[in-house]
Amino acid sequence: xxxxxxxxxxxxxxxxxxxxxxxxxxxxxxxxxxxxxxxxxxxxxxxxxxxxxxxxxxxxxxxxxxxxxxxxxxxxxxxxxxxxxxxxxxxxxxxxxxxxxxxxxxxxxxxxxxxxxxxxxxxxxxxxxxxxxxxxxxxxxxxxxxxxxxxxxxxxxxxxxxxx
Length: 164
Ligand SMILES: [Zn+2]
Known about the structure:
alpha+beta, four-stranded mixed beta sheet, 4 helices, 10 strands, 27% helix, binds zinc ion
């Protein structure tokens, strides 16, 4: 059985209204036959995983010598034809999926309005006052100390760097 066991991983990630899957697949002898990431648009993580499973299965079945077992981590087994696919979190697969998504929103500078140099308003569900020179923000995350450098400060400083 061990000699027929393929290994692999699959993960999905979403950011900025877009989802992506990433994954890899190795033959029983350890040869990497698939390592891929693809942005699949505005779909659920479940749907993104399903797309990834389809892609992985195609590769696995294309390479099979005789009905191989494709064993991908010990959770959530899916059966497709004669291949057994199992999927779970894997750091490399997650990193692959993340690599094809847009950058994190705090650097998108959306909703940051400059009042005067060093003073900004971050427009979210509420408006927050951001003073970059003082390094202070009026949001709860900053005020209650959960994150002393909140996303608003980061975003306002990113805007500052781009403006000037
Ligand atoms: Zn803040």
